[in-house]
Amino acid sequence: MKRAAHALEAELSRLEAAQLRRRRITAEGFAEPGSRALLTVRGRTLVDFSSNDYLGLARHPALAGAMRAAADAAGAGSAASHLVTGHGAEHQQLEEELAAFTGRARALLFSSGYMANLAVIGALAGRGERVVLDRLSHASLIDGARLSGADLRRYAHADARAAAHFVDEDPEHTALIGTDGVFSMDGDLAPVAELAQLARRAGAWLVVDDAHGLGVVGAGGGGTLEEQGVESSEVPVLIGTLGKAFGSFGAFVAGEAALIDYLTQKARSYIYTTALPQPVAAASRAALKVAQSEGWRRTHLTALIGRFRRRALGCGVPLAASGTAIQPVMLGSEAAVLAAQRALEAAGFCVVAIRPPTVPPGSARLRVTLTAAHTEAQVDRLTDALGEACTGLAGPGAA
Q: Is the pLDDT score of 302 beyond 70?
């Protein structure tokens, strides 16, 4: 036991020396009721430019009200898995509404996007088969492929030709091609139409995890597929989360009825876990309504993205080539990105440094995220502070 504890301490010391040790930020409260853009950290009010609350719904009163009402009616917890007695009316209605929103026959709720991705890949691929994923796919897609026992091949980022190489090596055994829709650390979009054509040719499942696209990308919030003009039939497995643009918690898989029924029977991370609390599902239902009825949120966010990019590039900030709410500031080294994070906090902003292994070595960055809760004045102050903080720190990878 002592030897094992020593090994843990040694690894923690190594991470500390390499400036890769992660530390949590505790949000002590929110400085302005109803606003997620301002939070209190260590007694100071900071403008939050790190959350995934893209539409500014996490503290919307409609979500809180729906959650309170459902808690009064159904209690705080589900008390069992969906296949025992944990599946309630709020779950059922949310699944039906998500299916309608995504243009699919059915949807299946999961407690997290991580669990949804493990479920899908584990159920649709296995030993003796091949899974082909984008190299920058989310960790949950990669872990799902590894746990499935399938032969995992990872193609060069957003390169459909590179994906085709791995498929054509063994088309008979290629069971699944998977990708993020909007990549969570880069903010760019997958070439979904080209991947759909490849999957169709190979007779493989195409899985798109659109966690950072649904609700926020596309004129109607339909995500990456809407943005790129891809029909839902071209992507048989669509995965979305409820904790980002929809400001709540949980995830879902949407597809044809047979697929959802199959996952209900086979997906271990669905079968063997307690169902999401009904008050959370109720909040997600409220968020879905607000997201669809208040299109001004996407319009405002789109304007902020353009404003941020124009001003940041004008200030010499090394931005990656992203047109979404995720705006990576590419600084390269761990030391540089941590220094910039500290400078921005001193200036009144929460912008978290992203380091390996979340991103590849040499590509440490600030991950700026814009939301509909931000104002033009906040964006302007941030770009000015970024220009000062990034002076002399920029590394490779900027647009």
A: yes
Q: Strand pairing of 174-180 and 130-134?
A: parallel
Catalytic choice (212, 284, 300, 374)? 212
Residue linked to tokens 């949120």: 297
Asked whether 181 and 212 are in contact (CB, 8 A), the reply is: yes
Active-site residue, selected from the candidate residues 60, 82, 138, 244: 244
User: How remote is the C-alpha of 118 from its chain's centroid?
Assistant: 15
Contact 332, 398 (CB under 8 A): no
Rounded distance between C-alpha atoms, residue 156 and residue 201, angstroms:
20
Whether the predicted pLDDT of 298 surpasses 90: yes
Q: How far apart are CA 176 and CA 132, in angstroms?
A: 6
82 is an active site residue: no
212 is catalytic: yes
Q: How confident is the model at residue 44 (pLDDT cuts 50, 70, 90)?
A: confident
The token pair that represents 217 in the structure block: 């990308």
Statement: the pTM of the whole predicted model exceeds 0.85: yes
| CA separation for the pair 379, 384 (Å, rounded) | 9
DSSP string covering 289-300, please? Answer: HHHHH-THHHHH
Q: How far apart are CA 305 and CA 351, in angstroms?
A: 16
E-strand ranges in 135-249 read: 151-155, 174-180, 205-209, 237-241
Of residues 184, 269, 284, 322, which has the active-site annotation? Answer: 184
Distance, in Å, from the CA atom of 39 to the CA atom of 31, rounded to the nearest integer, reads: 5
Spatial distance between the Cα atoms of 271 and 159, rounded to a whole number of angstroms: 35
The confidence score (pLDDT) of residue 26 equals 78
Express each pLDDT in 219-270 by its tens digit. 999 999 999 999 999 999 999 999 999 999 999 999 999 999 999 999 999 9
Residue type, 225: L
Kindly list the distances between the CA atom of residue 29 and the CA atoms of 35, 49, 52, 348, in Å, as whole numbers in the listed order: 11, 16, 17, 15
Assess whether 184 carries a catalytic annotation: yes
**Residue keyed to tokens 């063997």:** 272
The amino acid that residue 194 corresponds to is E
